[in-house]
Amino acid sequence: MLDLLERGPVFMGSIDNFERSEVVLIGAPMEVTVSFRPGTRKGPEQIRLVSPGLEEYSLDLNRDLADCCYYDAGDVVLPPGTLQESLRRIGAVTAKVLSSSKFPLVIGGEHLVSLAVIKEVARVYPELAVIQLDAHADLREDYLGERYSHATVMRRVADLVGGENIYQLGIRSGTREEIEFGRKHTNLFFNELIQPLQEIIPLLKGRPVYVTLDIDVVDPAYAPGTGAAEPCGCTSREIIRALHLLGGINVVGFDLVEVSPVYDFSERTALLAAKLVREAILSFSRRP
Ligand code: MN
Ligand code: MN
Hints:
The protein is of the alpha/beta class. It has helices at residues 43-50, 84-99, 113-124, 153-161, 176-185, 194-204, 236-246, 268-284, and strands at 5-6, 23-28, 57-58, 63-64, 70-76, 103-108, 129-133, 166-171, 187-190, 209-214, 251-257. The chain is built from eight helices and eleven strands. β7, α4 and β8 (166-171) form a beta-alpha-beta unit. The longest helix has 17 residues, at 268-284. The structure holds manganese (II) ion (2 copies). One manganese (II) ion binds at residues 134-136, 214, 216, 228.
């Protein structure tokens, strides 16, 4: 597994030992199917780079990264321009993390990386439910003839785990066909995060849950650094609150995707993403 990874500067507070870790952070700088604005391949690097600007202690959670064993394993080395090989490598690294009974926390990269990760997580947890926080439904059957794309990722996840096990929150953009598909086959919640989470969390108690967070669920005022920015999203405070609520259920894997430093002149998106990664590590790790 380690030969598939390249470890440079790490996210703040990482221990230096894979074996001892409970949560493993993996960078997946894949950017192959991006259609609108580029830059997500630089997401993991930039999120790590700005992370020391934040504290390792979370005031909301009263926990510190030093309290939990998390390990930044570096980036998956991806042959440029390859789709299936990139997904295979991201899947292989995820499988290794899972087989070591550790929690995979993946930073994209474009949203399609989630498919490779969820495929492995669903193998380990057949009862898996998936929560997507995103401005876009990502439910196209194909995009410009391509079945594997950031715009089709949740449709492919539906093929894997069944649409009825997918909960889509914060959605405010899609084609008529996508929304009709979602209304029929998945659990679609428009615009809001907190109220739908309060509704579905009791239903998911005891079940293994995977959470995929597309940064564009947040309003471009707070997170402009993304490829397909979509107005009328949630605030930075709401997305943090959503992670804290999710800390109350059995989350078994998490990814944060679509941060594009190219459109992030003030670094506010990367800083928010770094804070979300910190809160995810602290919310989803179980060891005291
Ligand atoms: Mn999106
Ligand atoms: Mn997406």
